[in-house]
Design brief:
The chain contains 10 helices and no strands. It is mostly helical.
């Protein structure tokens, strides 16, 4: 398919989208317990729109993961390592943002195989639910199945493995595994600092949109102090954690619960993929902040950057996110005035 036509079709599809005696007594007891259990399960499902829970999404994503295993096996290459599993108590909006990153890789597979893949999707300030994530996973699964047929990969898994008790954090961790496998299929062994830099630019634009909402004349400062040369991915990772702590300050000021921020691992190597994952969590939380500051703009799509970026460049862009975020007024007493 001609590239311009493919992109036009993706755009049109995107527009269309924006659219749970004693024997008798024992039997009664077991029956009552079963009824209580079923009632509890139903109540749990009722907490989610369309009765789609994180466990349902996990099972669907795990099927996609097994399909990708079959595709990776055809490349005669080692299975890539997943990003560090250090997160706890994430929400559906974090998962949605991570699966959006996966859709970008599926589109790259589309470009390699000539199969029309998922449309271009973007995150926006709204309340996400498991059903939203399930919808995107279904799109990716359909695309990967069609790509497999094009590549003549046979015996693709077709059945879900039912699971229970899964949380959004579990789904998020599996999504990061899916992401690195898609990277491998796209010929990407490791994410480049340039790609992480582009994600930080997206975060910067999100904070700018919040500041412009409060002050249309854009009287905010952009003179963030420069970062040092020679920084490593671990330094950028720590800066991401600092941004997440600052986002939690704003969340508490808005009367919302904080998202637990992990400690930086001291005994494990931090790779660009780990920083990339942090950038997705930050973008998801910025959309949450936009939602509660009446900022309606969607997160801009990533734009390829010119030249090869290094970790110090990424750190500088992340510092700009933090610098601007300190100027957002949510009533938080601990939010500091921007440095002069």
């Amino acid at each position: 398919m001609v590239p311009q036509m493919k992109h036009t079709v993706r755009w049109l599809a995107s527009c269309a989208l924006i659219v749970a005696p004693i024997i008798t007594c024992m039997a009664v007891s077991h029956q009552t317990h079963a009824q209580e259990t079923n009632a509890a399960a139903k109540a749990s499902l009722d907490a989610f729109p369309d009765e789609i829970s994180p466990s349902h999404v996990y099972a669907r994503l795990e099927l996609l993961d097994r399909c990708l295993d079959k595709l990776v096996a055809t490349r005669n290459t080692a299975m890539p390592e997943s990003p560090l599993p250090i997160e706890t108590q994430l929400g559906p909006h974090h998962v949605y943002q991570m699966v959006l990153a996966c859709t970008n890789r599926v589109q790259q597979l589309d470009d390699q195989t000539g199969v029309l893949a998922v449309p271009t999707l973007s995150a926006r300030p709204t309340i996400y639910a498991p059903r939203d994530v399930r919808f995107v996973v279904d799109l990716m699964l359909d695309s990967v199945q069609r790509i497999a047929r094009t590549l003549e990969v046979e015996d693709l898994p077709a059945d879900e493995h039912p699971v229970s008790g899964k949380t959004p954090t579990d789904v998020f961790a599996l999504a990061t595994t899916v992401f690195v496998k898609l990277n491998k299929l796209c010929g990407i062994d490791e994410i480049s600092p340039s790609e992480v830099y582009a994600e930080m630019v997206r975060g910067t634009e999100d904070v700018r949109s919040i500041l412009r909402q409060a002050d249309p004349e854009s009287r905010y400062r952009v003179d963030a102090p420069p970062s040092e040369d020679g920084l490593e991915p671990s330094d950028v990772f720590k800066k991401c954690l600092e941004i997440r702590h600052l986002l939690n300050t704003h969340r508490r000021a808005l009367g919302k619960p904080a998202v637990p921020v992990p400690d930086a691992p001291l005994d494990q190597q931090i790779r660009p993929r780990d920083v990339f994952v942090q950038s997705q969590i930050i973008i998801a939380d910025l959309n949450f902040l936009k939602l509660h500051t009446n900022t309606v703009s969607s997160t801009p799509l990533a734009v390829p950057v010119r030249g090869a970026k290094v970790p110090s460049d990424v750190h500088q862009q992340a510092s700009m996110v933090e610098y601007l975020l300190r100027q957002v007024n949510t009533g938080a007493e601990t939010v500091l005035e921007a440095k002069k």
